[in-house]
Amino acid sequence: MNWYYGYPILSPDSQILATYRRGEQKNADNSISQINENIITLISIQTGIVTHTLTYTSPSEIKSLVFSPDGGVLATQNYHQGVLTIKLWDVASGK
User: Fold this and answer.
1) How far apart are CA 88 and CA 63, in angstroms?
2) How far apart are CA 48 and CA 19, in angstroms?
3) Are 8 and 16 in contact (CB under 8 A)?
4) Cα 71 to the chain's mean position, in Å?
5) What whole-number distance in Å separates Cα of residue 12 and Cα of residue 22?
6) Domain boundaries, the chain
7) Other CB atoms within 10 Å distance of the CB of residue 54
8) What is the DSSP string of 63-93?
9) What global pTM score does this model have?
10) What is the pLDDT of residues 40-82, one digit of tens each?
């Protein structure tokens, strides 16, 4: 499996690192197909432990990832066939 990793970003208080990835899978006939899933990982800088894994299905990869100024919300942006999708995630709960 070959994963595409996006640029990691650090929360404004430097406590959480957010990374995202999107993957491909190898099929039985050795062809490669794209997985329509985006996976965001939130990691505590202090402990190095993954605090939350945020997953959602989308036909396109994440184009941008940004924390709110207080670090409490993470916003993701996708763009597919003329449709812009923005998702807001609560960093504390992972929802």
Assistant:
1) 14
2) 13
3) no
4) 16
5) 25
6) 3-90
7) 19
8) -EEEE-TTSSEEEEEEEETTEEEEEEEETTT
9) 0.81
10) 999 999 999 999 999 888 888 888 899 999 999 999 998 888 8
